Amino acid sequence: MKKTLTLLAALFCTAPAAHAAGFQAKTMRETLSAREVERGLLIGKGWLEVGLGADIKKADGYWSAEGEPLEFDDALWTWSTQRASFRYGLTKRSELYGTVKWHYARLENERLGTDVTDFGLGDPRFGYKYEWFKSLAPVTSVITYLEYKGPAGNESPGNYIGGPSTFSSVIMTTGTPDLEFGARGKRQIGPVGITLGGAYVRRFSNVVQYVVETDLNVFNGRIKPGDITKFDGELLVQVGPVALQGGGIVQMRKATAIGPTSAGLFQAADLVVQEGSDGVYVDATGGFTFNITRGIDLVGGVTIPIAGEDLMYFPIEDLHPTRGNTYSGTFEFRY
Known about the structure:
Layout: H1 2-14, E1 48-59, E2 61-63, E3 69-71, E4 75-91, E5 94-109, E6 114-121, E7 125-135, E8 140-149, E9 178-189, E10 192-203, E11 206-208, E12 221-224, E13 228-239, E14 242-253, E15 257-259, E16 272-273, E17 279-293, E18 296-307, E19 326-334
Antiparallel strand pairs: 1-4, 1-19, 2-3, 4-5, 5-6, 5-7, 7-8, 8-9, 9-10, 10-13, 11-12, 12-15, 13-14, 14-17, 15-16, 17-18, 18-19
């Protein structure tokens, strides 16, 4: 008995005290693989990810109404996005996420002496993902998501000095909210991962400052951007700590409608569909994810336009994506 008490006293005196620290590992977190190919489409319960990144596009051409790639005579359009994003594993089957953006834009034309630049807030996006099925080794993940885009960017082209056809600011938003519902699935096969997805974007109408009736100079008309149906796919190959990715995105955009606000409950009832403002866009994507540690990734990518059409609303990027390669870079930090 004396020996037992002596042993218990020794263990009690030498055992380390329990402490809590802000950057110690959290025991409530789910396991997260250090390799991209072994990760599901949710970040996992208890994990917080913060991303800081940027995208830049320089467009010196456009799509014709017949879908032909043409070059600008003298113009150059630069569109960049700086973004901060987050993901949080709310439960084992759900995730909250969001992105806040800022844009820098520049329109140059040497022949006309045009050089308009602008910088401002973009449209934030927030969403919720739910995972319906997940398996490990190999990974299979099937999710649905619901995402909201709120209009927050600049929607005024300027003060109309010199007439409504002149502008001194760059429009950085549609000025309308979007609601997107989509589904995605990922399947791992050894060092290879295949991801497929589809979504429908419902675009609501709103009164905006860039819709102008030029006969009577009536400002602040109503616009209803065309809804979007899109599909995407990606093939991923893991080579050590680097995951190489390639795929494509197809967007089918319906026609935009503009006009005055209607009285009553359905305020978009009298909008006129703009013929020719619909079309199909096809982009190829490529990139890499460098898994520096389990908590830090470096992500790089490029989006290359393959096909498109003139959607009539240049240079509003969210209504009329311009023809040019987009280069992206992001640091992702997880805890």
